[in-house]
Amino acid sequence: MNEAIIKEIVREIVYRAGISPEGGKGDNGVFEHVEDAIDAAYEAQREWYIKYKVEDRRRIIEAIRAAARENARMFARMIREETGMGRYEDKITKNLAVIEKTPGVECLTTDAISGDSGLMIEEMAPYGVIGAITPSTNPTETIINNTISMIGGGNSVVFNVHPGAKKVCAVCLQILHKAIVENGGPENLITMQREPDMEAVNKMTSSPKIRLMVGTGGMGMVNALLRSGKKTIGAGAGNPPVVVDDTADIDKAAEEIYRGASFDNNLLCLAEKEVFVMESAADELIRKMCAQGAHLITEEETEKLLQVVFLKKDGHYSVNKKWVGKDAGVILESIGIHDTDTRLVICQVPHDHPFVLVEQLMPVLPIVRCKTFEDCVKYAVTAESGNRHTASMFSKNVDHMTRFAKEIETTIFTKNAATLVGVGIGGEGHTTMTIAGPTGEGLTCARSFTRRRRCMLADGGLRVI
Ligand code: NAD
């Protein structure tokens, strides 16, 4: 065992015991009461904005990346243990993606206009203190990503994390907090209440010290924030459809859909949730997905599975949370099928089946055969439900791709690849865990958490012509 592994184990034992390594009370940004967390973050933000330069932000963000990188495997292990969801190796990939590919201050720009009447500059200024709500599906990933983006924009952050991931979130926050302070940054630039609850969220939305709320999670939470009257950036649910037409490279489609839909047991909001394939390509796609490792279940088994993993009330289906993010093999076992090798269950269903219309967050992918391309588009738009989140297409027909992109209006639209590429995992562009479809900021980065301020020098001043 090398020294690095021994150090990692020691660190993990210390954090699991809830003792901060420097022998403190385990605070490092973690507070018992949200009011104290807000007050401390308020003081920190004033200092961060007034005393520190943009170059300091850059340096401290690099220190945050280094600390998170060192602990990425521990985060993955602790999330898996605390939430019981997803896959360890994929969680490492997600953590590393936000560590390496969340932009810092480099995405902040200044606009300038000069003319006979003088000079105008517009800069990206901080909001102040941001209240950030984070999900159980990407707990540390969202904290790391939001921290880099929000403090990069000159803000401080008070987090209210998902109760189902509160321990690992507190550990992650403390590690990032320590990196900030050890590198000369202010204390309490990132804070949280140790025991997250709805009361804390209400206190955050009604606090005059908090200027912006950012909600990453389900639509219930996003809508609650929007109703609060506080300025909100909302990153809500998705139910990404995939359309496969008769010009698609089916080998590629099978491989990429399998990879994307099974990644972290389909916990990502942007993961492929249902497939609409043209009849002429359907048999080949299903055969090739099975060759990739997918387990195809029969119609009878599909109905049996629906009764297990969904709840039915007043004729409406909803997900039984107990099954969210579980391994495909465990899900199959619930209906008496033994296959621990597969990462993805696939089934054939009509376009209005609950597996198609309800966001599952499980490695169970329904496939709908459609007579025409027009049917694929129509059913995909219905399944996406106006979330404006993510959609994907496998095709070589440019007209088809343009048509679907226009109809679906999603924030992310991927072509001929797993939707994972949409957040820079194996694709170009930056990574974010806060995809703000409902409020329109899109794939957030530091610039999303800034407000524009204009500075004028009139009467033709400060020009050289
Ligand atoms: P969730 O909605 O259950 O919880 C998210 C957060 O909201 C938690 O911190 C929770 O405590 C809080 N919350 C829940 N109801 C609330 C309410 N009424 N008022 C205030 N806060 C409330 O979501 P989850 O199960 O943790 O995450 C999965 C969901 O999040 C999926 O729908 C997924 O698509 C979505 N998601 C979206 C993005 C994105 O970038 N758009 C990213 C990750 C997850």
Molecular shape: globular
Tally of DSSP β-strands: 20
Provide mean pLDDT, rounded: 95
- As a whole number of angstroms, the C-alpha radius of gyration is 23 Å
The proportion of residues in beta strands is 15-25%
Going across the major beta sheet, what is the strand order? 11-14-15-10-9-16-17
Catalogue the ligands: nicotinamide-adenine-dinucleotide
* Range of helix content: 40-55%
What would you call the structural class? Answer: alpha/beta
Span between N and C termini? 67 Å
Q: Low-confidence parts lasting 5 or more residues at pLDDT below 50?
A: 19-26
Total DSSP helices: 15
Largest sheet: 7 strands, parallel
Structure description:
- With 465 residues, the chain is an alpha/beta fold.
- The longest helix is centred in the N-terminal third of the chain and has 30 residues, at 54-83.
- It is globular and about 70 Å long.
- It contains 15 helices and 20 strands.
- Strand 5 (156-160), helix 6 and strand 6 form a beta-alpha-beta unit.
- Strands 11-14-15-10-9-16-17 form a seven-stranded parallel sheet, with helices on both faces.
